[in-house]
Amino acid sequence: MDQGHLDLDRWASLVSGGLRGRIAHHPVLEVFLRSVEQCEIPHECALELIEGARMDLDHLRYQSFSQLRGHCYRTTGMASVMMAHAVGFRGLCPKQMAEIGIASGLTSLLRRAGRGSRAWPHLPAARGNGRLRLRRVRPAANASATAPSTR
To answer: Which CATH number, 3.40.50.720, 3.40.50.2300, 1.10.730.10, 1.10.600.10, labels domain 3-149?
Structure first.
């Protein structure tokens, strides 16, 4: 196991223990745990974010859009939910905030990929004519969305 995995496993153990009430002996974790309590941040958000970081260590390329979307859910989606709680915003449900975060993460990856950065390997292998197209999806409730299509 490489150092990145060892460090992440140690951090995951500290965070998980802290969320279960174990005393944190790390200055950053102490502040984070106070924020989780004061802002009522759901515990699963922090744990999902750590799993998203683990995906960064384990995957260079996702085989499907579904896998890439799962990565964005765990990283930018959970960060979005956590930030909404931190700033006291309660207008949208956590699921909608996660969707906004996913959209932000996908947009960022596509923007960086267009500039030739390291983001490109995260994108799924092309299918069909090799182009990623956008298609309009039916909005849920009163939200609108655009989802990638590999057709």
So the answer is: 1.10.600.10
